[in-house]
Amino acid sequence: THSASSASSLDSHAPCLENSQSQSVRWEEQQKVLALEQLCGVFRVDLGHMRSLRLFFSDEVCTSGQLVIASRESQYKILHFHHGGLDKLAEVFQQWKSCRETQLKEQASDEKTCMQFSIRRPTLPSAETHPEERLYRRLDVSAWLRHLNHCGQVEEEYKLRKAIFFGGIDPAIRGEVWPFLLRYYSCDSTSEEREAWRLQKRAEYQEIQQRRLSMSPEQHNEFWRKVQFTVDKDVVRTDRSNNYFRGDNNPNVETMRCILLNYAVLNPEMGYCQGMSDLVAPLLSEVQDESDTFWCFVGLMQNTIFISSPRDEDMERQLMYLRELLRLMQPRFHQHLTQLGEDGLQLLFCHRWVLLCFKREFPDAEALRMWEACWAHYQTDYFHLFICVAIIVLYGEDVTEQQLATDQMLLHFSNLAMHMSGELVLRKARSLLYQFRLLPRIPCSLHDL
Considering only CA atoms, which of 192, 261, 255 is closest in space to residue 200? Predict the structure, then answer.
């Protein structure tokens, strides 16, 4: 009787036991998956609840690049495919998108699903490229020497600037060519005149440094409070991954510090602004001379328009030009900004682009190519604004398609930093400049461009 009663009891509780065991198994499976995710960096996502999928190919054969997944809460997951395979994933997503669209049509469902799917390839259609694209190679030492006559003067400066605009400069000769672009050296100067000029400017630099070192205690305290305290904090965290500044007690870091402090002495009205160290560091690593780098930086701040001073009116002028360019060349995006009101028209997402010259948006090699294209001053002094428009054209599709708010727009572009193709952006920017100059009429507000 006892055994029969026990069996009956077991039978009556069997469904509960099965449910309990099933839940236990599922729980164990979930824990295994979570452990695997933590161990291997694996993650899962419901594509049906994502806001967008974007594939950005980075190579010509379109196998490597990044997959950018955006949730409806503006959270981004970026997956890098360094060694191929992204093309296969693109095929899967294309099939999934097609199946999902068919399913929703059959169900006549109003469910919002991830239909924002696009593929960006590292090439532009021929109709969207500058007609002289790819006609110029990178300026190497042999090409550079061909631009110099027997006295060391630059001949046909316009052709040199055009070559740099399209092809860039070989890193091996940047230290020699950059001083010309930054107007430290005149293109008309001979080799002997440049050497005499260097000696003269080196003496001037030493005099500026001596003024700083001979400050009275009161002057030094004020200088430390207004300038040196911030410089000392910034230089130790600027470009430390660069071999030129890597390691403890690196003397090049101290050299960068001296350049920035001495610049604040030369130009007390501007002093030091955070971000200047980001501009000095590449100059110093390429020029590799303290005095020459200092005067190149002076030229950069004086003569290169795309370096905005901290004065509000200078930045506002840049943004006014950019708003007008967007209204002319990207009207849909401009309309979206207008609908957002004053917050949208402030263009907060691109302030860093302008102030730090795209240095935080692209790897150093690509950012420096952009610097050189801007310094070439080929056909415009405002090429950096065409680069801004190119970024928006190539990577701002989500903003208009999904009507992103100001804070979401800022997050969108911030998350794309270091994940955009600098070469693609440059080619698009050159194309935009070409199209701009073909316009039969240019608004008066853009006449300076």
Answer: 192
Q: What is the pTM of this model?
A: 0.81
CA distance 391 to 428: 8
3-state SS class at 437: helix
Residue in the structure block whose two tokens are 């400049």 = 433
Q: pLDDT tens for residues 380-437?
A: 999 999 999 999 998 888 888 888 889 888 888 888 888 788 988 999 999 999 999 9
For residue 57, the surrounding DSSP H or E stretch is strand 50-57
Amino acid letter, residue 24: S
Q: How far is residue 11's CA from residue 103's CA, in Å, rounded to a whole number?
A: 43
Place of tokens 């403890």: 248
- How far is Cα 413 from Cα 403, in angstroms, rounded to an integer? 14
Q: What DSSP element (H or E) covers 77?
A: strand 76-81
Q: Is 148 helix (H, G, I), strand (E, B) or coil?
A: strand
Judged by DSSP in three states, 136 sits in coil
- The SS3 of residue 169 is strand
Cβ burial of 17 (10 Å; 0-12, 13-18, 19+) is: exposed
Dump pLDDT digits (tens) for 129-159: 888 888 899 999 999 999 999 999 999 999 9
